[in-house]
Amino acid sequence: MVRIGVFLCHCGTNIGGVVKMDQLAEYCRDFSYVSTVIDYKYLCSQPGQSIIKDAIKKYDLNRIIVGSCSPRMHEKTFRNAIKDGGLNPYLLHIVNLREHCSWVHKDRDKATDKAKSLMRAGIERAVFNKPLSTVKIPVTKKALVIGGGIAGIQAALDIADAGIEVVLVEREPSIGGRMSQLDKTFPTLDCSACILSPKMVDAGFHPNITLKTYAEVTNVSGSVGNFKVTINNKARYVHSSCTGCGDCFKVCPGKCVNSYNESLDKRKAIYIQFPQAVPATAVIDSSACLYFKTGKCKVCQKKCNINAIDFDMTDQTEEVDVGAIVVATGYDVFDYKAYGEYGTGSSNNIISSLQLERLFSSSGPTDAKVKIPGTDKTPKNIVFIQCVGSRDEKKGKTYCSKICCMYTAKHTLLLKEKIPDVQITVFYLDLRTPGKGYEEFLTRAQSQEGINYIRGRVSKLSRRPDGSVRVSGVDTLLGDIVSVDADLVVLATAVVSKNDAKDLSRILGISTDKDSFFSEAHPKLKPVETQTAGIFLAGICQGPKDIPETVASASATAAKVLGILSKDHIESLAMTTTVNETKCSGCFFCLQVCPYKAIEKKELENGEMVSTIKEELCQGCGACVAACRGGALDLKGFDNNMLLTETMSLCQD
Ligand code: FAD
Ligand code: SF4
Ligand code: SF4
Fold first, then answer.
1. Ligand 1 atom index nearest CA of 216
2. What pTM was estimated for this model as a whole?
3. Does domain 577-636 bear CATH number 3.30.70.20?
4. Ligand 2 center from residue 301 Cα (angstroms)
């Protein structure tokens, strides 16, 4: 005999201020299976939960319906409450009276009518609710970190320090990411390499970290606690016995554009990205190597005293099992060619802020001397243009890149140190400096003699006969048209997502936002989790962040990973798919659509092939149920009877 308890939550005035709860309660009492109806101001509170527990005993209830906020908020709370009350936690059904009703309607009578329909559908559906159970799955106590910038390094170190093994995969030949390209860092102006290198070395030599550089993740299957990851280790053509002596670079005739130096110079075909690289093992870029292009050369091999160079190396694929994954793949910068007025990128004296960082750096193309690229001239009049690609819905991105005001202020201060008589003009739209010590840092830059901040958008850059650039725009504070002649223009280009972020999101089964940054599960309450259990985010791959924020998010992520990997077992989901073997025709459409590879083929005694579900992998997404034309699949807790009953009930109105 089904005995349903209906509990209606006012959610303060969120629901109670719109839906007439007394009328709704009266309506619910009329259903034959309903044994009791109770409404209360906050059912999620401890007294509210006690009301449910007490009612289960008093009325001998065996189904519970809570009409409240979204199950995303309190499903767990109410499941625990009814479990404490002695019922199987899956005998709960939540009707969303808030997001689906009171928050989207103003008319109280109409909202109450809709709430009645939703409750009726819920009550009729709940009759089919069945007790469900979970199984314990052993956890693989190893983590994968994808991306070896400061975010990935910090997350890997925190996890490894807690005694858990980490595989750190970086696509470039060295870890370090963008931070390794920077010279000094705001707000303290400490040298980037000095604070990053010790962490890189720690990560490189940590007994619990396995570094896989020049490698990429190509496939991920499985689920939280037990992911199977395929990694492609690209051929380096140099063994790890390489001492990084550099003898081979000197003799190598192969050259190509140096992307690490933001295309400001060229590098050899055999190279080490930068002096502090970890690992300090050379790599041959086969697209620039004469041997790979013409079949002739190998002079590097002759020069290498320890025979570290091996042209027969090939890409190697391997599989690793991990329990949790951290995505820390970082960012790119906006391509300013989208703005015709800033040129095509071919002009020597229009550069990006990241290029300026390389000019500042002692490992950069000019030995830390700021020169106009391609010349030996020291710039004396420099114009900075902020928000290039940021806050511009027409040609760029709608969001604020968050770091450009601060790094431009940093650049002005560093330039004043290097070139004391330099004249600097900064064109800005707004100045945004939230952060500890940030406003003071900006004020320091603004108060320096020779640094002039102008609020306004630049409309045109035109080349002058002497090779300099005339920057024309409007001072929006004074309402004046301004033009400044510059021998170097620096564009503070927006932070954008990695160009292949969508590809990785497909491999991992996680989502991205409208700007292709990876999406967090909840912007406030689950800021480092993704919607896929066991996969977490760290750093700027989620949206613009400076280094302090990046490091904080990486450590938060590490704590979440440890929360999973410190357990020996995790519970499987209860709401997984079941197969009715008599209905399965063996078409295996389901196998193709399952994003978690949770479906296998199984041979029956009569030789027929049918689908079978690997419960530990099934995430209950329901994709297979929708794909099955024979109706052979059903999702526990959402079976066809329940969904049809609920839908038919709603159709009565
Ligand atoms: P990244 O540094 O981008 O690292 C991501 C790593 O992941 C890279 O090594 C990349 O190769 C790797 N990767 C990407 N995709 C894959 C893949 N599919 N598989 C494997 N590996 C992959 N912040 C400050 O706090 N102070 C400053 O002074 C400062 N100055 C800046 C100046 C400029 C001009 C710019 C543009 C930024 C500046 N920043 C500064 C911001 C700083 O660069 C970032 O906050 C920081 O680098 C973010 O680190 P991350 O690890 O999240 O990303
Ligand atoms: Fe350079 Fe390739 Fe020749 Fe070696 S074989 S020296 S990497 S061009
Ligand atoms: Fe795969 Fe179906 Fe489970 Fe979704 S519900 S994970 S498609 S088996």
1. 19
2. 0.86
3. yes
4. 8
